[in-house]
Design a protein that fits this description.
The chain has 175 residues and is mainly α. It contains 6 helices and no strands. Helix 1 runs antiparallel to helix 2, helix 1 packs antiparallel against helix 6 and helix 2 runs parallel beside helix 6.
Length: 175
């Protein structure tokens, strides 16, 4: 199980690097678009769509990395007041809820991706990007997020990780 958790962590890190590359490429494309429009007075065809789709893909594909490093918004008031057993149970419940949500979103995202692929959907712009390409980021990214949730649950159950990434004792215990 430890090898599985480490493998998923490596995949999540790779997702984070890929998401960062997508954001970097979007920044470069925006700069290129500004140069084309305002300095060369030329039209842009694909740049706006690329930027929007790459930022959305970075959000979905980068989500496993955010969960791995616990970079998401987290209200940890309740875990501070719970004992170790309560924290553990709450962490398992929260992770199971997140996993269930991700599985449903992955399934519906795959349906959308598959429908766009089978029906040959494209954007309604001059570029006519096949929509299955940007739609793929939803089931792929959220599916990998679900995998990270599975690894987190395994780490919690086997004692490899502390619930809510907290120390064994809360600063509020014993008051």
């Amino acid at each position: 199980m430890h090898a599985f958790v480490k493998l998923v962590a490596a995949i999540s890190r790779a997702c984070g690097m890929f998401a960062a590359a997508l954001i970097g490429s979007a920044i470069l494309v925006v700069c290129q678009m500004v140069m084309m429009r305002y300095f060369l007075n030329a039209s842009t065809v694909w740049q706006t769509e690329y930027v929007v789709f790459s930022l959305v893909a970075a959000t979905f594909i980068g989500s496993p990395y955010v969960l791995l490093i616990r970079g998401h918004v987290n209200v940890d008031l309740l875990p501070h007041y719970l004992g170790q057993r309560g924290r553990h149970l709450l962490a398992l419940l929260a992770s199971a809820g997140g996993l269930l949500f991700c599985l449903v979103l992955t399934w519906t995202g795959y349906d959308l991706f598959h429908e766009a692929l089978v029906n040959g959907w494209t954007t309604e712009t001059v570029w006519q990007l096949p929509l299955w390409i940007p739609y793929l980021s939803l089931p792929l990214g959220i599916g990998l997020l679900a995998l990270q949730y599975v690894a987190d649950i395994i780490a919690l159950v086997t004692g490899q990780a502390m619930p809510f990434a907290m120390e064994a004792h809360s600063p509020f215990e014993g008051e």
